[in-house]
Amino acid sequence: MASALVIVGASYAGVQLAAAAREQGFDAPIVLLGDEVHAPYQRPPLSKGLLSGKTSVDQLALRGPDFYTEQRIDLRLGVRATALDLAAQRVQLADGSHLDYGWLALATGARCRPLDVPGAALQGVHQLRTLDDALAVQQAVSGSSRATRACIVGGGFIGLEVAAALTAAGAQVTVLEGQTRLLARGFPEAMSDYVAEAHRQRGVALELGRGVDALLGNAAGHVESVLLDDGRLLACDLVVLGIGVLPNVELAEAAGIACAGGILVDGYGRTSAPQVLAAGDVANMELPHTPGGPARLRLESIQAANDGARAAASVLAGQPQPLTAVPWFWSEQHDLKFQMAGLPAHGDETVLRGDMADDRFTLFYLRGGVVVAAHSVNRPAEHMLARKLVAVGAQIPADLLADPASDLKPFSIPRPRG
Prior knowledge:
Layout: E1 5-8, H1 12-23, E2 30-34, H2 49-52, H3 65-70, E3 73-77, E4 81-85, E5 90-93, E6 98-100, E7 103-106, E8 110-112, E9 125-127, H4 131-142, E10 149-153, H5 157-168, E11 172-177, H6 189-201, E12 205-208, E13 212-217, E14 223-228, E15 233-235, E16 238-241, E17 245-247, H7 250-255, E18 263-265, E19 276-278, E20 283-287, E21 295-297, H8 302-316, E22 328-333, E23 336-342, E24 349-355, E25 360-367, E26 370-377, H9 380-392, H10 398-402
Parallel strand pairs: 1-2, 1-7, 2-3, 7-19, 9-16, 10-11, 10-16, 11-12, 18-20
Antiparallel strand pairs: 4-5, 5-6, 8-17, 13-14, 14-15, 20-21, 22-23, 23-26, 24-25, 25-26
């Protein structure tokens, strides 16, 4: 099977790459390797609907089982790749066997960043990345010895989504965030303040600018409190860690593929090694819509995984098409749906359209008068329009943007070149 495409990682990116390759005419054999025993599944519901009970496990499948058969995709679960031999074009597997490839795609994703403090291995301390992780947290808040006091370490999107879901499940939740405000990496202060107040109003306690010195357990080895860096103890019977992820670059690095904060790829998903592609959370990709012009970023989103996989598939099909889509993201917290388009930067002008107090608004970001990003809350139609405005580089007067009655659709029409 030397001409086969071997995809390491049955992730969003891995499945999308296989599907897009077939859709674009790639006809060689495809082998898709997943190290989990579960068939490829959706990840966003793990920190949202699955924990709150709105989504069941049987609703998580990315594709039905017939899809892999019909598309001639050899899906192999519970299979771990251990080494790459680029010269021989071979993937070594944990069971001692190997697979030869004509093309190789790395969609190995990322893993949770560990919390390096005493007590991190206590019972009742969880991370949330995989289906098994989510099921363990779900069991903790719904089982016979139901946890009622949860501490979430990390005030990023995953941490806040888990906080909302556990609050809905009846737990008393405290979020611990080392920064002095939530989502400080991607949100301006006004948005951070809005998110913080929204969570407080819905029953979540926040400890901002606070670190964790240790997790303390009882005689049975189960977590019972968190020791903060100011000496206070917070009682809890469940801890969920959400302090970011680390890209799974070990296979690539050991094989000599260029890596720096992820596997380095161009706008087509091509790595430094011939016949080797990468996509998804592990890929540090050249992107067009970034502050200051094209730049390299590793984006952790379903949209970025799918778009990067489609670009990589176009290389396999012999008709390379670089990634050009505007990055967009979404998050559900309590009754709030956040939708974000584009990548804002420090110093961008912000224009509010709507009223934050109503939980329905869009915050636009302008750079030199051009719309470069937008953050919407409970305004899905406006989010879709905002993505078009960012894509065409719309120039809109701030007073029009701020006026909810003004029609922005004419600005979404691409301007003629030249």
